[in-house]
Design a protein that fits this description.
InterPro entries: Alpha-glycosidase (IPR053487), GH4_Enzyme_sf (IPR053715), Glyco_hydro_4 (IPR001088), Glyco_hydro_4_C (IPR022616), Lactate_DH/Glyco_Ohase_4_C (IPR015955), NAD(P)-bd_dom_sf (IPR036291). Belongs to the glycosyl hydrolase 4 family. By secondary structure, this protein is α/β, with parallel strands linked by helices. The protein folds into four domains: 170 residues, 3-Layer(aba) Sandwich (Rossmann fold), CATH 3.40.50.720; 111 residues, no CATH class; 60 residues; 50 residues, no CATH class. Helices cover 46% and strands 14% of the residues. The longest helix has 27 residues. Bound molecules: nicotinamide-adenine-dinucleotide. The site of nicotinamide-adenine-dinucleotide (NAD) has 25 residues, from helix 4.
Amino acid sequence: MTAIKVGIIGAGSAAFSLRLVSDLCKTKGLSGSLVSLMDIDKDRLNAVHMLAMKFAEEFGADLRFETTTNVEDAIKDSSFVVNTALVGGHSYFEQVRKISEKYGYYRGIDSQEFNMVSDYYTISNFNQLKFMHDVAKAIERISPKAWLLQAANPVFELTNLITRTVPINMVGICHGHHGVDHIIEKLGLDAEKVEWQVAGVNHGIWLTKFMYEGKDAYPLIDELLEKEVENFKPTNPFDDQLSPVAKDMYEFYGKMPIGDTVRNGSWKYHYNLETKKKWFGEPWGGVDSELGWKWYQDRQAEIAIAMQKVAKYFQENKNAKLLSKDSLNEIISQTKNDVKEELTKEIYNLLDPQRKSGEQHILLANALLNNEKVDLVLNLPNNGTIPGIPDDVAVEIPVYADKDGIHRYKIDPPLPERIKKMYLYPRIMRMEWALEAFLTGDKKVLEEFLIRDPRTKSYDQVVKVLEEILALPGNEEMRKHYSK
Ligand code: NAD
């Protein structure tokens, strides 16, 4: 058993923090650990703290919690630091998007070819990149042996930035590969008998291997896709793994795009709302359209309020025990029905001793510390894993972890050349441009990003949109950085 300290930065992201806490509660090998919850929003922090303590109590888990608004307190003596903060919050993204659209950049200047995810900003997200870089440097200074588990986006850019410039143990972690589970479930296969691999870069991963009982099972996916795309009707804006866009990308690239990769195709699927609806289905046109993103934001706001209500209930009823589903429903009675249902299901899943959350952070910690070998999909420097991609580019690949560290599986069969040439190389170039801008502070690099954007019609448009974004309150440091 190894009692450690785990720091969670941006812990006010309640649903995420509770997933990690519930995994810790179910991991006997990490019993006795201290979780340091860090956030700048005290209300969110207190709510998460209350709920985390309640979870541990319900499980009878030996965990301790502390709260702090100071990053260094969370890092000090930690063995693992999970960073899930979002500097400026979603409202900053909306401000940038509004300015961008005024100048003709539908869904914002940061929505770029192969990077259409609406909270994955790489051009105008200086404050987020800077904060994450500073946290990594603080780890090097204060807890040089600690692992940084980077959960906040943009995971691709941040993993590259940090692994290249700060000598600490670090991986980028995303749960996008669970798209494979969705395919397995839809096919009605026994997951234990499926052997699969994904490879690529974060939000750009491809199902390179899909075997069932030792035989190639891609033909099953072909059949399933044919059926699914006929009269495709998504159940929610995220429901795109078996959508027309996924099928079209599969046909062009030769392998299935997995998870958020489906959201990250070329402009073919994203020119405007009408195009998005054609490919991602009605009524939303996928989660990254103006309609889909509003659905998601409204839902997140509902969930945050409901979480606060549950936390308040426990604050006022210190001796209250695990709530029945009925009483939980009563506390969050004002919440919309479908959100209420989803939230109740999530909370009860997290409380189910037989299930893990699906997040990989605690599994990795347990494998490294207690030698419980586990297969994971992580972001780390390529170092020859995908031939043709530079060693220092962070790739998202299948690995296993144990007491000796993280070990890469051979990608077999290899990624098709088409995926590398038409998708990964151009996406990698955009990551390099974002890092070139951030590391040099040269505004001309930001300009070049937009000069090469098909939505740009004049240089004047580029200058004006950047000027207005740089003038936003909160962007003082960014403005200074790019005035060198
Ligand atoms: P959110 O705004 O709901 O939560 C982020 C939290 O960060 C808030 O509680 C906020 O108060 C806090 N925060 C802001 N500035 C901070 C600072 N300087 N120090 C400490 N905390 C600070 O955002 P969210 O929707 O939960 O998303 C968080 C991040 O996680 C985003 O980058 C998102 O894209 C990413 N994300 C990653 C994955 C993945 O699998 N890797 C999945 C979903 C979301």
